[in-house]
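Summary for the lay section of the report: proteins are chains of building blocks that fold into shapes. Here we show the chain for Molybdopterin-dependent oxidoreductase and then a coded description of the shape we predicted for it.
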Amino acid sequence: FSHPLTRGIICSKGRDLIQRHSHPERLRHPMVRRKSGFVRTTYAEVFDRVAATLASIHDQWGPTGVLNYTSDGYGGVKSRIQTIFFNCLGGDTRFTGSLCWGAGMAAQTFDFGGVRGHLPGDVVNSDLVIVWGRNPKATSLHFYTLLKQAEKNNTRIVVIDPIQSDTAKSLGTHVALKPGTDAALALSMAHVTVTENRYDRSFVQNHILGFDRFCQYLDRFDPETASRITGVSPDTIRKLAREYAAARAPGIWMGYGMQRYANGGNTVRSIDALAAVCGHVGKPGTGANYAAKSLAPLLNRPEKNSKAHVTASRTFPAPMLGHFLQTVDNPPIAAAFVAGGNPLNQSPDLNAAVRGFQRIAFKVVFDHFMTDTARHADLVLPAATVFEQDDLFVTSMYSHVLNYSKKALDPPETLMPETDFFLALAKHMGIDTMGFASPREYLDQCAAPLLESLGKDSDTDLDTLAGEYLRIPGHDIPWADKRFATPSQKIEIFSRAAESAGQSPLPCFIPPSQGEDRFPLRLLTCKSQRSMHSQAFVFEDREPAVSVNRKTAQNLGITGLEKVCISTRQGEGTARLILDESVCDRTAFMHQGWWHKSGAVNFLTHAGLSDMGEQAAFYDTFCTLSSI
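The coded shape description reads as follows.
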């Protein structure tokens, strides 16, 4: 109960871990595809086949003939073991960018030089909290609980979201705007702040680079102009801007949805700039909070050290998986290894991704269940659950607390955890450069620099963290010393690094793409309360639902609650229709994560890239609905 974030409470996703662990359909044996389907095999046979296949591919094509698709799994440091193995083998083909948060990460790196967020509990120090494009009541129970506590202490809360989300319904004031126009709202608020002389002159002079150029750009975003873009009234824009500028300690807490458009990175940069000109950075209760990556640099990362063994490498943007796999050549992808993710559920334009995956001759997937990706594999290897192995968890994406999780149960005797598997495979193939001989030695290496900086001995004190947590002093309030990690050591509203990367040096508003006559509705595919991504949908057999408001349904000639066909340029599917006035006009809302058996929404989504960070622009998908 002393943990600063969870406080002894477990969310529905955490409770589902127990159900997943003991589920009768959970994989407990290595499986191989035969003509009759999947049958059990042995790890000895797996090692022989994998070793022979990799040796043959390296002889014919070199290291880049292998796709290493590694995602984060539970988020522990052990999720990188597959990458370490392939680095030591000489390299691979892997993805860059993100299906999750890449545009915002790139944006804050341009602006601040790094991605750091306040400890979530710091919201109780705020007198105003703007929850921007985030729905913590559904996606983050613990942060929502903190927001409720702050509201009880008279903190004013504003929720900015195109959808009247569960959070918007239950907290503070909802400001609804048109999807993809968040940057225009932020820039207009900055315009009001500057033209009414409400900005923090001292902070601007001492800690911001590019203020004068930014002011010139802001001239085009007066509230009347921004209102026509965003749908937010000029009076609301002015009121919110004045309130934010005048607040003692206002914090902005951003979600990831706002950067899942082609303009997503500039949206985050615009919000960063608003916080900067008001001087609301580096003090308790403030900040432009997007994510927290404070602890990761304090750990040793063996996957980085192992890069010394790489002789060849190739990359592609994660959102373009389908296009890449269908067109890659010289060398082709001859084998794929997938761990910690479910790309044939989570990638955009799944029709293309499935076709591309089917071109690969040999595919190995680690997972707990026969997922959409695993069903297309040649070898399916059971993964250990979070309860069955020790691991070091650095962050929940927005918390700076390190947790060492000791295993509570032994894995089934027929199951080999991934760290053990790749250590054994390396030994089988004569690879002696992994840099550690056991899973525990790997964890000790990861934690050593951090523990030593705190005066602890990694050989003994890692165990003392079991069941506890570690907060690193000096990281609760990022940028408190006002020394930013940019080349100028200032907040770079004008960023030469962005310019060198082919971006606008200033944050700018890029008008969002629009629908067409055939596909007039923007499709928003958001997280559900039950599942981080596709994990918990293993328990679902229903059809997905699509929500639109009554006006939108009537414009499409749909008059009642019925089953509908959803069509996009990428594909089509069926869903139950829900009429919901919480959804804005010309927009359809669905939860993502449904498996193929139910109707995975990513068969519908567009495989485009954001303006920076190689982020998937999921929300630039347009659809239509028709009655069945």
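Put simply, here is one thing we learned. The CA atoms of residues 157 and 172 lie 5 Å apart.
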